[in-house]
Amino acid sequence: MDNSANVATTTTPKKKTKLCEICNVQRPVLKRPKTGQMICKECFYQVFEDEIHHTIVSNNLFKRGDRVAIGASGGKDSTVLAEVLTLLNKKYDYGLDLFLLSIDEGITGYRDDSLETVKRNQEQYQIPLKILSYKELYNWTMDEIVKEIGLKGNCTFCGVFRRQALDRGAVILKANKIVTGHNADDIAETVLMNLLRGDIPRLQRCVYIITGSEGALPRSKPFKYTYQKEIVMYAYFKKLDYFSTECIYAPNAYRGHARDFLKDLEAVRPSIIIDIIHSAENFHFREENKMPVQRNCTQCGYICSNDICMACDLLKNLNSGLAKVKLSINLKRKDKDQQVLDNSNNNNNNNNNNTNTFNNNLKSTLEIKTNN
Ligand code: SF4
Ligand SMILES: [Zn+2]
Ligand SMILES: [Zn+2]
């Protein structure tokens, strides 16, 4: 009796080894967050770098002979930016002179450690490094500022001072362009924050890939369409040397909420980050939201839209001891506003749901005003 038919039906078919969805040769080691594809390490590097190259070329971020200062904090974003720009500059012969520019805010136990990473990056990438400190520019460190004003509003000082410090550092390096490691997640978060705050001018500006062209030093974001998760993967697989501790003064207030919200949305719709950026790129704004006219600060000459720039204004308050007073007035105002809200809440029991939503929104707005 011939049993061959039975044998054929009972044999377990050999399991087919899955291969990288791009090259079909290597075994996949990761699932690409942006597309969900299972791919190998080499193909991941290739698509990651190719997309950044495409962003650079299609947006004309650089031209041959540019001196480009990379805002380097020692964190994953700027370290990957230094690695990728060094690589693309060689591979596609961009003809750029690259520099690392680090700002030392004077935060003990955070920036001093991360600067050690940047110093090693300087050796690894063979790019000249310039470190400029708040102390030498403003005669204040962030440690001293926090001692003076506490942990409310510290990031406002830090953000304004850093923006100007980067420009001043780039001038010292004779750079004509600045690049920063802001990634797609950062930009989508900022869009959400500005939308929720109703900050139309910032909403308009925050998706620009190049800003500051009206001044002497345009700054751009080559990672505008790059997912944070992919930057982390790239740094991890390439074993890059970066510093991953958060600033000890991070308030994590409003941006933290936007970040959490975005993470929840991303869990159900992975393309949400790029979708938000594309939506914001297509917003149309009314004429009256145009940028204010730029002029020079009467105290330091920095480009600004008022008589004196924000850094000089904040410094004036710090040096005269007014910063603390102004903040406490803001906080008192916040309490007063809260009281008004509480009273109005008591008088409006009929419409409890709406009132609570309104209060929460207004509370957040007040929080932003004091925190940022
Ligand atoms: S978290 Fe705030 S204080 Fe710390 S580095 Fe960032 S902006 Fe500066
Ligand atoms: Zn592959
Ligand atoms: Zn000024």
Automatic annotation (TrEMBL):
Highest taxon above the source species: Eukaryota
Keyword flag RNA-binding: yes
Pfam family, one: ATP_bind_3
tRNA(Ile)-lysidine/2-thiocytidine synthase N-terminal domain mapped to chain residues: 68-246
Keyword flag tRNA-binding: yes
Functional pathway: tRNA modification; 5-methoxycarbonylmethyl-2-thiouridine-tRNA biosynthesis
Record GO cellular component, one term: cytosolic tRNA wobble base thiouridylase complex
GO molecular function terms noted in the UniProt entry: ATP binding; nucleotidyltransferase activity; tRNA binding; tRNA-uridine 2-sulfurtransferase activity
Domain Cytoplasmic tRNA 2-thiolation protein 1 C-terminal as annotated: residue spans: 295-325
Biased composition (Low complexity): 343-361
Location in or out of the cell: Cytoplasm
Keywords carried by this UniProt record: ATP-binding, Cytoplasm, Nucleotide-binding, RNA-binding, Transferase, tRNA processing, tRNA-binding
Gene Ontology BP terms: protein urmylation; tRNA wobble position uridine thiolation
Alphabetized PROSITE patterns for the sequence: UPF0021
Segments of skewed composition (Polar residues): 362-372
Binding site for ATP: 71-73, 77, 103, 181, 186
InterPro entries assigned to the protein according to its UniProt record, in alphabetical order: CTU1-like_ATP-bd, CTU1_C, Ncs6/Tuc1/Ctu1, Rossmann-like_a/b/a_fold, TilS/TtcA_N, tRNA_thiolation_TtcA_Ctu1, UPF0021_CS
PANTHER family to which the protein is assigned, alphabetical: ATPASES OF THE PP SUPERFAMILY-RELATED, CYTOPLASMIC TRNA 2-THIOLATION PROTEIN 1
Function summary: Plays a central role in 2-thiolation of mcm(5)S(2)U at tRNA wobble positions of tRNA(Lys), tRNA(Glu) and tRNA(Gln). Directly binds tRNAs and probably acts by catalyzing adenylation of tRNAs, an intermediate required for 2-thiolation. It is unclear whether it acts as a sulfurtransferase that transfers sulfur from thiocarboxylated URM1 onto the uridine of tRNAs at wobble position.
Family: Belongs to the TtcA family. CTU1/NCS6/ATPBD3 subfamily.
Record-linked HAMAP family: CTU1 (MF_03053)
Protein name according to UniProt: Cytoplasmic tRNA 2-thiolation protein 1
Lineage of the species this protein comes from: Eukaryota, Amoebozoa, Evosea, Eumycetozoa, Dictyostelia
